[in-house]
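Batch manifest, entry 17 of 40.
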Amino acid sequence: MGEAWVAWLDWLHTTPLAQTMRQSEWLYPAVEILHILGFCALVGAAALFDLRLLGVSRQIPVQQMAAHLLPVAWVGFALAAPSGFLLLLSDAPSIGVSPIFLSKLALIGLAGINAWIFHFRTARSLPAWNQHTHPPPAAKLGALVSLGVWISVIALGRLIAYYG
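Output type: structure tokens
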């Protein structure tokens, strides 16, 4: 673990916002609820889209489904990311060095890379497999990776509470 990272975590822990997160009776649970709601929206939208790519509900065009789910995913991310940062603030020196937390962050990064690859490479041929056909193997593989990564992120998120 880098010294700069640990020093930054120590600094975060002393900020007024971190102190408020620790001292307020209602703030931590409220932020945790927002974090969970954001993750539900993000992962729910991603999972529905992944299932479509894997062949569920083939009567729904992929482009139409993406148009409905992508904004939901972005709203979920917009809730989950800052609320997750606030949760980190509450005990930054401990959580920020946790291998479980760091693994969760790495997997979220992997999910982002996977989504980027889909949108900028795999989806180029989308008009050919938009509806009533099977998506190409690359799209199905991306969907499986996405599902596995998001399930792992959720599991690691829960484990942080028990194993730091």
